[in-house]
Design brief:
Layout (H helix, E strand, L loop, with lengths): L2 E2 L2 E6 L5 E8 L2 E8 L8 H15 L3 E2 L2 H8 L2 H4 L3 H19 L3 H4 L7 E3 L2 E3 L2 H9 L4 E5 L7 H11 L4 E5 L9 H9 L5 E3 L7 H11 L7 E3 L6 H10 L4 E4 L1 H4 L1 H13 L3 E4 L6 H14 L25 E3 L11
Length: 333
């Protein structure tokens, strides 16, 4: 049952800024993916260098079960690597272990064989929103970046086009502070499921002040994503509990890191939403399997990079994700 890492190949990503990692154990091949995203990750060159160091240091390493894999990836040399490089490694090794055990990656992490969950659709305008609704989506994510207040017109047109659907608004810190309270009231009038990353900065106390100044402390749910990438920032948000929803992107905190964060967030009453990072099939499949394992109640944001060739179960035309029955990652078309 022991898996020995006979080869670890790291190469520049052919379709994105980042890397692909392939791990071989006997006849088995596991795959991992890491991408560079501004504001979320180290540059691609650093990710490549770190992954190549891991590949050199871990060649010949062995593990036989999930606990052994956790110990291997918790070693100091792995823990010190940038999170996206760890994500690629963890994905590839879990892919190997799932194949050896004959289990989908999600089931390996504890998901039931019948696991399924809705996903959200990323839309830009009212026509796109109507198309998503016609495809069966019930949750939409919309970027709310400004320029303000002009962008409110587009957002209002989207809400008018799909009045019954849930809207998730993502400001990416784009509400200018002087106008933020008034803009927050305008956005709340759209009845969003939540507003993600309202203003620049990582201090949750400023989020609390904004809610108080807008008069929406009890009415508007905030969600935290890039403001809590680092552990100390994540812990600050857990203590403050201003954000009621935690966005988990395993691409930027690792698969095992995301599992740990989900446990800690739920322990203080926060909800979680698992999302991908607009990657290809490997990264999206890993995020989906994590969501299956966590049994998340809110729709997952599993959105592949535009034009990426994904397997049928990840097809963006499918508003409901079903865990595949193939062993491992099941990321190949």
């Amino acid at each position: 049952m022991t898996l020995r890492l006979d080869a670890l190949d790291v190469r520049a990503h052919p379709d994105d800024r980042g890397l692909l990692l392939r791990a071989r154990a006997g006849a088995l091949l596991g795959e991992g993916e890491a991408v560079e995203r501004a504001g979320f990750s180290a540059p691609a060159e650093r990710l490549l260098g770190a992954a190549r160091d891991l590949a050199r240091d871990l060649l010949g390493a062995e593990f036989s079960d999930l606990d052994g894999l956790r110990r291997l990836t918790a070693a100091p040399l792995v823990a010190a690597a940038p999170a996206p490089a760890r994500f690629a490694l963890e994905t590839a090794l879990l892919d190997l272990l799932g194949q050896r055990r004959g289990l989908p990656l999600g089931a390996l992490l504890g998901a039931p064989a019948s696991a399924r969950l809705p996903r959200s659709a990323l839309v830009a305008g009212p026509d796109h929103a109507r198309m998503a609704q016609e495809s069966g989506y019930t949750v939409l994510k919309v970027k709310a970046h400004g320029p303000w207040p002009d962008d409110l017109r587009r957002l209002r047109l989207i809400r008018a086009a799909v009045p019954a659907l849930a809207l998730r608004l993502d400001a990416n810190g784009g509400l200018p502070r002087p106008q933020a309270p008034a803009l927050l009231r305008d956005l709340q009038a759209l009845n969003p499921e939540y507003l993600e990353e309202p203003i620049p900065g990582r201090d949750p106390a400023r989020w609390a002040e904004l809610l108080t100044r807008s008069g929406l402390r009890a009415d508007l749910q905030l969600a935290v994503d890039e403001s809590a990438l680092e552990d100390h920032d994540f812990n600050a948000h857990l203590r403050a509990r201003v954000a009621r929803v935690v966005i988990l992107k395993p691409a930027f905190c690792g698969l095992f890191g995301a599992l740990d964060r989900a446990t800690r967030a739920r322990a203080v009453g926060l909800e979680i939403v698992v999302t991908s990072a607009l990657e290809g099939p490997v990264g999206c499949a890993a995020a989906a399997h994590l969501a299956f394992a966590l049994g998340a109640s809110r729709a997952a944001g599993i959105t592949p990079r535009s034009g990426a060739a994904v397997p049928a179960w990840l097809d963006p035309a499918r508003p409901l994700l079903h865990m595949p029955d193939q062993p491992g990652l099941a990321a190949r078309s």
